[in-house]
TrEMBL record:
<feature type="signal peptide">
    <location>
        <begin position="1"/>
        <end position="21"/>
    </location>
</feature>
<protein>
    <submittedName>
        <fullName>CUB and sushi domain-containing protein 1-like</fullName>
    </submittedName>
</protein>
<dbReference type="GO" id="GO:0004252">
    <property type="term" value="F:serine-type endopeptidase activity"/>
</dbReference>
<dbReference type="InterPro" id="IPR000436">
    <property type="entry name" value="Sushi_SCR_CCP_dom"/>
</dbReference>
<feature type="domain" description="Sushi">
    <location>
        <begin position="138"/>
        <end position="190"/>
    </location>
</feature>
<feature type="domain" description="CUB">
    <location>
        <begin position="25"/>
        <end position="135"/>
    </location>
</feature>
<dbReference type="GO" id="GO:0005615">
    <property type="term" value="C:extracellular space"/>
</dbReference>
<dbReference type="InterPro" id="IPR035914">
    <property type="entry name" value="Sperma_CUB_dom_sf"/>
</dbReference>
<keyword id="KW-0378">Hydrolase</keyword>
<keyword id="KW-0732">Signal</keyword>
<keyword id="KW-0720">Serine protease</keyword>
<keyword id="KW-1015">Disulfide bond</keyword>
<dbReference type="Pfam" id="PF00084">
    <property type="entry name" value="Sushi"/>
</dbReference>
<dbReference type="Pfam" id="PF00431">
    <property type="entry name" value="CUB"/>
</dbReference>
<keyword id="KW-0768">Sushi</keyword>
<feature type="disulfide bond">
    <location>
        <begin position="25"/>
        <end position="52"/>
    </location>
</feature>
<dbReference type="InterPro" id="IPR000859">
    <property type="entry name" value="CUB_dom"/>
</dbReference>
Length: 190
């Protein structure tokens, strides 16, 4: 008897509220959600000696989640540095350079993020594009409902809450059966 299998891939869906286009180099972003934010001249190459600063401020009590569409800079020389706060005095979360086919979402611990992009005097690449969304701290996104399966909890996905997945007869669960909403707004498993 061949077991039928399905994959329960849980996707933390983002809800975009507003989308504002941002051009030029740096800026103060204050909408609850925004993007695409790009490096200068994107999708063309950025210039030499760029120095861009973005500050993102969302409503008090919310956290920020950055999602990248693309990232390509000169490895070792052209950096995007992300700080977990209002300025470059805050804790550095990431220093990105080179080519990344995929970047995991970056999640702040408070309602501000500061980003700095610098390029040196030679060699440029396409740069990067990202969006951001905000959500209430301690609140996870709806983890989704797989086809041919069910979950035991459809209510608020708040910190500490567990959601348990089960499959219909004849189907086998792939992934994690019990996932818990963590304080930083991510789920403990897929
Ligand atoms: C960013 O927003 C743009 C425009 O709404 C959308 O096309 C793109 O898929 C979004 N990218 C990510 C990574 O969320
Ligand atoms: C960063 O820290 C320095 C030294 O502590 C201080 O002088 C400066 O005002 C701070 N800058 C910001 C933007 O908070
Ligand atoms: C769950 O969320 C709904 C609306 O999103 C709200 O009305 C309700 O009070 C929340 N319940 C709890 C237990 O937080
Ligand atoms: C959903 O999870 C919460 C917290 O874990 C729990 O209090 C509540 O009873 C659950 N609801 C259902 C329908 O299982
Ligand atoms: C999931 O949680 C239920 C009850 O909360 C428990 O009986 C079960 O063993 C858990 N399964 C896994 C794989 O942790
Ligand atoms: C969220 O918190 C969990 C548990 O502390 C940790 O394993 C995970 O890396 C964190 N994720 C992010 C994006 O900070």
């Amino acid at each position: 008897m061949a077991a039928r299998l399905f994959t329960a891939t849980i996707i933390c869906g983002l809800m975009f509220t507003t989308v504002t286009s941002v051009t030029g180099c740096g800026g103060d972003l204050t909408a609850p959600s925004g993007g695409p934010v790009t490096s200068p001249n994107y999708p063309g190459n950025y210039g030499n000696n760029e120095n861009c600063e973005w500050s993102i401020t969302v409503p008090e009590g919310s956290i920020i989640r950055l999602t990248f569409d693309s990232f390509y800079t000169e490895y070792g020389y052209d950096f995007l540095t992300i700080y977990d706060g209002a300025s470059d005095n805050a804790t550095e979360m990431e220093e990105l350079a080179g080519y990344h086919s995929q970047i995991s979402p970056i999640i702040s611990t408070s309602n501000t993020l500061f980003l700095m992009f610098t390029s040196d005097g030679s060699v440029s690449r396409q740069g990067f594009q990202f969006n951001y969304t905000s959500s209430t701290a301690g609140q996870c996104w709806d983890p989704g409902l797989p086809a041919n399966g069910d979950r035991d909890n459809n209510s608020n996905f708040t910190s500490g809450q567990t959601v348990r997945y089960t499959c219909m007869d004849g189907y086998q669960l792939r992934g994690t059966a019990n996932i818990t909403c963590q304080p930083n707004g991510t789920w403990s498993g897929a």
